[in-house]
Amino acid sequence: MDSLNSLIDGFGTALTPANLLWAALGVLLGTAIGVLPGIGPAMAVALLLPVTYGLDPTGAFIMFAGIYCGAMFGGSTTSILLNTPGESAAVVAAIEGNPMAKAGRGAQALAAAAIGHFAGGMIGTILLVVLAPTVASLAVGIGAPDYFAIMVLAFIAVTSVLGASRIRGLASLLIGLTIGLVGLDQMTGQQRLTFGSLQLADGVDVVIVAVGLFAIGEALWVAAHLRRTTGEAIPVGRPWLGRDDLRRTWKPWLRGPLIGFPFGAIPAGGAEIPTFLSYVTEKRLSKHRGQFGKGAIEGVAGPESAASASAAGTLVSMLTLGLPTTAVAAVMLAAFQQYGIQPGPLLFEREPELVWGLIASLFVGMVLLLTLNLPLAPVWAKLLRIPRPYLYAGILFFAAVGAYAVGGEALDLVVLLVIGLIGLGMRRYGLPVLPAVIGVILGPAAEQQLRRALQISDGGVTGLVNTPFSVTVYAIVVLILAWPLVYRPAVVRRRGGRKESDGTGTVSGG
Amino acid sequence: MTTEPTGPTGPAEPTGPTGPAEPTGRTGPAEPTGPTQEPAPKQDTTRSWLRDHSELGVCALLLAIGALVLTDALTMSVDIAQRGPIGPRTVPFVVGSALLLVAVLLAVDVLRGGRGEAEGGEDVDLDEPADWRTVLLLSGVFLAAAVLIGPLGFPIAGALLFWGSAYALGSRHHDRDPLIAAVLSLATYFLFDNLLGVPLPGGPLMGVI
Amino acid sequence: MRLRTPLALLGAALLVLVGPPLLATGDGSDTGTQIPGLRFMVPNTPGGGYDITARTMAKDAEDAGLTHDIEVFNLPGAGGTVGLSRLVGEHGNGKLALSMGLGVVGAVHTNKSPSTLADTTPIARLTEEPDIVVVGKDSPYRTIGELLAAWKKNPAAVPVGGGSSPGGPDHLAPMLMAQAAGIAPKAVNYVPFDGGGELLASVLGNKVGFGVSGLGEYRDQIEAGELRLLAVTGPKRVPGMDAPTLREAGLDTEFTNWRGIVAPPGLSDAERTKLTGLITELHASKEWKESMKKNGWDDAFLAGEPFGDFLAEQDRRVATVLKELGL
Known about the structure:
The structure holds three protein chains of three kinds.
Chain A: H1 2-14, H2 17-35, H3 41-52, H4 57-82, H5 91-140, H6 144-158, H7 166-181, E1 183-184, E2 191-192, H8 206-224, H9 243-265, H10 272-285, H11 298-321, H12 327-338, H13 347-350, H14 352-382, H15 388-405, H16 410-428, H17 434-456, H18 468-486
Antiparallel strand pairs in A: 1-2
Helix pairs in contact in A: 1-14, 2-3, 2-4, 2-14, 3-4, 3-12, 4-5, 4-14, 5-9, 5-11, 5-14, 6-17, 6-18, 7-17, 8-15, 8-16, 9-10, 9-11, 10-11
Chain B: H1 45-52, H2 56-75, H3 90-111, H4 132-152, H5 154-168, H6 177-196
Helix pairs in contact in B: 2-3, 4-5, 5-6
Chain C: H1 4-23, E1 39-42, H2 49-63, E2 71-74, H3 81-89, E3 96-101, H4 102-110, E4 121-136, H5 144-153, E5 160-162, H6 169-181, E6 190-192, H7 195-204, E7 210-214, H8 215-223, E8 227-232, E9 256-263, H9 269-284, H10 286-295, E10 298-303, H11 304-325
Parallel strand pairs in C: 1-2, 1-3, 5-6, 5-7
Antiparallel strand pairs in C: 3-9, 4-7, 4-8, 4-9, 4-10
Helix pairs in contact in C: 4-11
């Protein structure tokens, strides 16, 4: 009740005309910058931080909330339209979003993403208001063994995206794991597969891998088989979500936050794993499982909603503990400090007006984001009507800018091209691309948590199962593994090819 | 620089940079052709067998990567502040061995007649033979941009990347493509370097004018 | 028709060649402290320590009217050594400076970086911050003495959490402590975390024996009673914090994390004096003093040659510790 009153006061602050204007301006700027290649939300927020300097703290933070909402969404736009995710949280959106856009359903994909962001952000922020203190104290109890258990669960989930041929899916996963090995070993500082190059010491960023495999690989593959006979542009189709779309998306929108928010709130959660888990959940629950990989709208709605809720979850530990768990949160922390405000356990008592104003403006920002971007979705989608040579040249250009702009290293472009060529080869020989990206995300995280857990227990294997949480997760894993023995659903092919050479093509097990 | 529309390339349209379907098709047929169990032994049996089994190249690549990962793990110095049973080499060992195993399993699968399905898509026409020349051209343009971006600056390298890619993909509007590329590249440069403060190299004339 | 192609090519060539220099803003004269076009390179991601330092400096220099529009950009990678290499490559560039600190010194060694800080032109050290030894409020260790006793008895059973990877500040501090306590550095069970945030959760949840991190990040937690501060690693106590220094606790060592600014090699004397002058003026400004207070940074200003000697001394110290660990 207390927090409700404070929140209403917060809305009082956020809804003054001047502050509304700042919020709207922030959303616009944030989206515009977030769309740019290579500029993820953290970078966008850092770049726009000086814009807020001229304002009083409340106004600045309200504008800030707008920038934050906008920048988060901007990355998804390019992910869907051009197959070039601008940040790791938007990688999953490309998997279904881009095929939708290619099939002339770009507006629907963007709308599903926008509403997903809205729903995820709203629910996430509500959870933030209601649960912040509770979640924060619970989150602290989550340790390395628990994280590793979640990773095991995630690896089990990978099997559902391996595609028609398990062995080829596994090969793809291993390629991803290998890329994930590159860099300094985080636990000991030992160099692995860096070949002495400093530029490789931090490993290959998952965004580079995703852009390389998705965008460059796709562009090269299309170049090899460009449909030259039919010159017509991608159809734009109806601009709005149809009734059927809504029937398929409302549940994913609501389910996404349930996965995204807890991950955002725990210190090592992040957005990649929840978006991926949301994706496989939606795939499993969908009635249109066959469409996945070819533009299933559930695969956009769920992960986007999860990503947005995860961002809200990040604010829990950020505001209540002063813990920046993502780069964006770290930039926000810096912004707080610019105004002499130290987030932490005492923040809600010391600066109630500012905190609740900020939370209220998150709600306002979400509403503005939706009202600004929903009408824009069909306009954006028309971008794809430009002639194919320009479209794919533009994608290559865009991807190159993204890889080069931030680091300014020409080697990043070479890495991008090499990964793109791998992506081309994978498309040629039917290796699914998604497991590779998942491997890059999960591999390093799983290894680190495993080793950290074992190190804390000084080598004792019991260190992996010494928490109730981890035991519960392993129990779920066992249940999932045992399930097919009890109930075996008809194998739904992920990808229906035109000429099937089946039967011998699938080696089971492996 | 004055590229007249020469050779087999039609002025604007369909065929693109490739001459009409290179008969050799170096890397083999792009689409998984139907019944592959019997690779129709005609004139050049080995060659067509290889072409049908070009996926074995993937196995070779996986083997190579696996070997690389294992070698890297083996040559790692172990005199390190490592604690616990799992060190920096454990996971590379697992991944490397798994790569070798999968490579072998995949080879068995391919020899038994299994085929990876080439990926379809809206802009992809699998019934046409693969046009590897365009792919080479695109890769070359991209690589050139990576090399030139240092000495020539972003605007030039970026413009070359866009124009070259559009050319490789069959656009033949010589009067408009270079201008589009230049404007796009310059606008990007301006946006990043001037407005956002993300520095990009400006080119050879920076500081001269 | 035919004519349009060469014209288009010419136009395009002109655009990309002449455009960038014309767009470049050569504003401002370089009189007084003004250095037009000065850029700060940040060798880690936005939001990190070097980033905040650089952006604060840029803003304060602007507000104090010392120089206009210092451009801050990030070039993260390999603990800062990617940025360092770039800086060393910019030989003679008097309009570039690197925001750096002790972490970069360690990263040079762990990454086996070909460029070292000895290759740079030292400008100034600006701030410092002691590390702290903390445990969660439910921890069995109530004093630094109890902790040290348990640690000495069985180092493996007392995992140390730190917010930096091996070679970083939070890694060096416990290693120096171990040395002073007579524990072989290799016996120390150091568990690296991704920054202070993740570490804090593990300390609060008592997942690790104790945590070592910068004071600034945890000040609030300590005041709120969530964390128990056992010791500070600096040479003297921190006002308002009820904790002994390491020396008071019987460990003959001290450790302070610091941040500063270095410039590319090969600067002319005039350029070096100018840059050092700007930073010295900035240090004296009330804007900077205000910022230091806000961020909880301690003043540790040290400019020019003495800073160069300090860098060399730090490098030796770090190298000794890491060598014992086999890094």
